[in-house]
Amino acid sequence: xxxxxxxDRDGTIIFDKHHIHNPGxxxxxxxxxxxxxxxxxxxxxxFILTNQSGIGRGYxxxxxxxxxxxxxxxxxxxxxxxxxxxxxAPEIPGVPSLYRKPDPRFINEMxxxxxxxxxxxxxxxxxxxxxxxxxxxxxKSAAVRTGxxxxxxxxxxxxxxxxxxxxxxxxxxxxxxxxxx
Length: 181
Ligand SMILES: [Mg+2]
Prior knowledge:
Elements (H helix, E strand, L loop, with lengths): L3 E4 L24 H10 L3 E7 L1 H4 L5 H15 L8 E5 L15 H9 L8 E4 L2 H9 L3 E5 L7 H9 L4 E2 L2 H7 L6
Parallel strand pairs: 1-2, 1-4, 2-3, 4-5, 5-6
Helix pairs in contact: 1-7
The chain binds magnesium ion.
């Protein structure tokens, strides 16, 4: 069975410019390209799960969101198929949504569809909704410091839930997955 990394986008793979919608603003977190390449070579499937309430709020369109993904994939330079699937939840908080984190539906669907090894898979992100999402799906979660600052309440949640914290995604892949490049 295949292990997988479920990745938050903003604040994890690219820097979190609030409600980013202009492809010209897309900036990769340094080292992510090499780290994701090493993960793919080690046999991990990569997925993105991103909450994009800016669409539901009318701040930007699906096309704007897709253009940012296209730019991110271009900057990564690992081919168009680098991510097995990408899912965005466009709803604002508090309205019914199938996929908005921390709902684990996307992870559960992907685990079944691709026969993923849940026990060897991770959800990585910068916010509590990311960490909760992974735990809700029964996989492991990890935190990165490249996005929203980790507030005291976040820190207590991380400690209580025994979720490891890393400076960035490459540090997670090096430190937790023990991959080198
Ligand atoms: Mg984020």
